[in-house]
Amino acid sequence: MSNQASGLRQNKNWQRLWLGQSVSLLGDMVFLITVMLWIATVIARASDGVIASWAPAAVSGALIAVAVPALIIGPFAGVWVDRWNRRRTMLTADAARFLLIAGLLVVPLLRHRIPVGGQLAILYAVLAAASCFAEFFDPSRLAVIGTIVPAGDQARASGHLQAMAAFAQVLGPPVAAPLLITFGVQWALILNAASFGISFLCVRAMRIPAAPAPPGAGRASYGTEFREGLKYFAASKILVSMAISVMIAMLGVGAINAVGVFFIVHNLHVSASWLGTVSGVIGAGAVAGALSTGLMASRVQLGKLLWLGLIVGGLGLVVLSRCTSLPPALVAGLVLGLSVGVINAVDGPLLLRTTPLHLMGRVSAVFSPLQQIASLTSMALAGVLSSTVLLRFHAVIAGVAFGPYDTIFGISGLMFVVAGLAIIRPMRALPAAAPGRTDVREAAAAGDAPEAAPAG
Fold first, then answer.
1. Hey, which residues does 45 pair with through a beta bridge?
2. What distance in Å separates the CA atoms of residue 115 and residue 43, rounded to the nearest whole number?
3. Mean pLDDT of all residues in the chain?
4. What pLDDT digit, counting tens, does each position of 204-216 carry?
5. CA 433 to CA 411: how far, in whole Å?
C-alpha cells in the first residue's frame, strides 16, 4: 500500500466527504437522465399515446435550465463562497437541494391536475434553483479539500472523485431507464433527494479546522472582493493558460457530443444503438485515467500531466475520426477516455496549487461559466455546421477522404493538441506549493479538529 493511499484511508474527513459525494454524483446522474426520459416519454405523451413534436425542445429546456445558472450565478457566487463558512455553505446547499427535489414529487402525484406547461415550468424552476446551489457547493468543496487533504494526497483525492463522476456517467443511463419504466419517476426523485440527504450527513460529520484569516482581512465591498479575484486570476499565467486549455478542450468535447451518434452511423457503419457502447468505453477509460492520476502525480508534475493528457487525448480523437469500423474506434475511444480522466483529475489540484484558499471561491468560479460557454457554443456550432455548410461536405486530401462528421472529430482532436502544446511553457512555472497557504491540513487528517469558524 502506498503512503498516499494509506493517508487518504486514514483521513476521516476525506472518507466522509468522498462517501457523500459518491452517492450524490450517482444520484445526480440517474436523476438527470430520468428527467429527460420523463419529459420525452411521459409529460410530452398525449392521451392517445403519441409523443408531441415539441418533446426534443422540452428536453433541451431542461439541459438549459441546468446550464444557465453556471453562466449567470457562477461568476458572482465566488465572493460569497470566500466570505462564508465553507462547511456551512455546503450543508445549506445540500439541504436546499434535498427540499427542492423532494418538492418535485408533487408533479407526478398531481400530474393530471397540472397542465403540461405548468409541469415543465415547475421542473425547469427546480432544476435551475438546484443548479444555483451547486454553484455555491462546488467551489466550497474544492476549498474544503484543500483544507483537509495534504498537498501530496490531493491529486489522488481528486482522481477518486473524478473517477466516481465518470462511473456515474457510465452507470446512470442504463439505471435510469428501467427505474422510470418499472417504478415510476417518483422513485428517481426520492433517490436523488436521499442522495443529498446522505451528502448532508457526511459533511455534517466532518470536522474542519478553522482557516486563518487572509492577509488584510476585513469587510471590503462586494465589488472590491470580486475585482480582487479577477485581478489575481488575470495576473496568473498558469490560471489563464488552464482556462484557455479547458475552453479549447470543451469546444472539442461539445462538438463530439453534438454529432457523435451521426459519426457512429455514417463513419463506423453500425447502428445508432452502439452509441451506448462507445460512450461506455470512453467512460470506463475516464474512470481508469482518473484513478491512475494520483500514482502518476507522484512521478510526473501536475502541469505536465495536464498538457500530456490534452495532447494524447487529441491524438486519440484524431485517430478515432479516421476509424471506419467499430473495433479500432473502441480502442481510440478508450485512449480518449483515459486522457479525459487525467485532465479532469488534475484540474482541481492545479487550482489548489496556484490559488490561496481565501481566493478559491472567486478563482474557481471563473472556470465554470467558461466551460459552459465553450461547451454550449461548440454543440450549437457543430450542429449548425453539420446541418448546413458541412451537410454534403466531401473532400479528398493526399488520398484521404473527409466527410462532415469525421472532419468535426478531427478538428476537435487538433484543438486538444493545440491546447496541450500552448500550455507547456506556462506549466513549467507551476509552484511547488500553494501561494500564501498556512497549513492547517495535518490537524484535520485525523478528523478530530474543531469546526471552522464562520469566514469573514
1. 51
2. 10
3. 84
4. 999 887 665 555 5
5. 36
**Calpha distance 99→196 (Å, rounded):** 9
Q: Which three cell numbers stand for residue 365?
A: 468560479
Please choose, from the candidates 111, 114, 90, 113, the residue with its C-alpha nearest in 3D space to the C-alpha of residue 13.
90
Instruction: Please name which of 268, 265, 262, 273 lies closest in space to residue 383, comparing C-alpha atoms.
Output: 262
Residue written as grid cell 473532400: 395
Q: Which position has the grid cell 463558512?
A: 85
Residue type, 268: L
Find the radius of gyration of the CA atoms of the chain. 22
Helix 275-297 × helix 237-266 angle, to 10°:
150
DSSP characters for 374-407? HHHHHHHHHHHHHHTTTTT--EEETTEEE-HHHH
Angstrom distance (rounded) from CA 391 to CA 244: 30
C-alpha–C-alpha distance, residues 86 and 266, integer Å: 49
Copy the grid coordinates of residue 378: 461548440
Note whether 316 and 282 are within 8 A (CB).
Answer: no
Alpha carbons 158 and 344: distance in angstroms, whole number: 8
Report, as an integer, the average pLDDT of 275-302: 89
Instruction: Report pLDDT digits (tens) over 239-254.
Output: 998 888 888 877 777 7
